[in-house]
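Structural prep section.
Before we set up the soaks we want a predicted structure of the protein with nickel (II) ion in place, mainly to decide which crystallisation condition to try first. Input record follows.
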Amino acid sequence: MKVRFIGHSCFLVEDGKYSLLFDPFITDNPVAAVKASEVNPTHIFVSHYHGDHKGDALDIARRTNATIFTTNEIGIEFKKSHDNVVAGHIGGKAKTDFGSVKYFQAFHGSGIEGGHACGFIVDVMGKKIYHAGDTGLTKDMELLKKHNIHVALLPIGDFYTMGPEDALEAVKMIKPKYVIPMHYNTFPLLKQDPEAFAKAVADETSSKAIVLKPGQSVDL
Ligand code: NI
Ligand code: MN
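Run finished without errors. Recording the tokens verbatim:
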């Protein structure tokens, strides 16, 4: 699979005919590597309803008829203007044509009344991606170890989410093959050194950290 970092928590994962777009904060994202009109996903994942995550989700979904995966209350909001929404909930799994999508807990506000933020465990043709969304470190992440996560996308920006030290603890619990940091250096408040995080991962875990600049991609 090809994993492309768009910037902030936005990734495009491509595998054959599937193009999966995570947390598509593009138009108002100061570091975004593309325009919202340039991505053509088949599926879109929205971890929660904060502007730096839902971003352009609805506009892109309506243009491409992509399926949106999100949690229930956020899904109800999207369904007002887009039919193709899979609104599951924490702990549940949706079967899909490329594999499956499991909704995992994220400890963070949802951005919508009564809603829940989530992370996603996405099985794409047999390889599992964990996109953490926005979350603090939780002991629940130990549960991810049994999933044999191929690539974990973890926030390191601190202030609103885990910082680098907590993300390192998360890596130790999740034990992914690869980890890519996200949710840093988009704004001054989120300033972090991803290379220092990558070095700590190399020194203290058996996972491999990959630092991508917005626009860069890697085959994993
Ligand atoms: Ni948030
Ligand atoms: Mn955020």
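Observations: The chain has one domain: 2-219.
Flagged for discussion at group meeting.
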